[in-house]
Amino acid sequence: MLTKRIDFEGPHGKISAKLDAPDGTPRAYGIFAHCFTCSKDVLAATRISQGLAALGVATLRFDFAGLGASAGDFADTNFSSNVDDLVTAADFLRARFAAPRLLVGHSLGGAAVLAAAHRVPEAKAVATIAAPSDPHYVVNSLLSEHLDTIATQGEARVRLAGRNFNIRQHFVDDATRHRMHERIASLGRALLVMHAPQDDTVSMDNATRIFELAQHPKSFVSLDGIDHLVTGREDGAYVAGIIAAWSARYLDA
Questions:
Q1: Measuring CA to CA, which residue among 69, 76, 150, 77 is closest to residue 112?
Q2: What is the pTM of this model?
Q3: Cβ neighbours of residue 31 under 8 Å, at least 6 residues apart?
């Protein structure tokens, strides 16, 4: 397996990415979208992408604008800009290698792949890991105590995952604009929903809603005992193995 560092131009400037590829010719190409305020180099992104590559799926993981090594100010971004970054990554793969046939998203990145799939026509399969059913879930669960400050001052300094971020009103407003129930119901791709019953960051109810809204073919896998950030040493490989096995019939068709 080979990991290649790649930069390409995005809506906010340079997008920093890594392409994990198998030693031989890939069966297919895919994209991995990381969790909220994370990066392409967190354990889940690294282990799952490399696990997929080891099983034949070359996977591009990238930093959303304002995070990791990508350009931009996080305070200027929102869910819509995440979706645009994801589509830009798909455009890059299509131009340089091959269009992605698999879209994988973790946490808010899972909601992003659901929202972006209709803009990536070649995608045949979509997999979500611990994803909220709507981006507004992040506002309700992580930002609720800051909403008054954001409304009166236009932004607030919020501590998330041990780091401080400026969250502006446009992030809150944008999160309410997405009609995710319509996107999920009209996804038009094979869908794999993965979630842990013990997830205390994004509740299992989100996975249930995604699964109920989606049309067949759809599958659900309970990630029993796996934490929200998929930090266990063997958990990333386990998740990658499930995604690779499930998606094979759609990627190889």
A1: 77
A2: 0.96
A3: 59, 60, 61, 62, 86, 89, 90, 93, 100, 102, 103, 104, 113
Question: For the domain bounded by 2-133+180-251, which CATH number is listed?
Answer: 3.40.50.1820
Rounded Cα–Cα distance for residues 56 and 29 (Å): 9
- Residue whose structure tokens are 């989606």: 214
Q: Taking the CA atoms of 151, 161, 85 and 52 in sequence, report the sign of the dihedral they define.
A: negative
Phi and psi at 104, nearest 5°, equal -125, 135
CA distance 234 to 11: 35
Q: Please write the tens of the pLDDT for every residue from 65-100.
A: 999 999 999 999 999 999 999 999 999 999 999 999
Domain limits of the chain? 2-133+180-251
DSSP 179: -
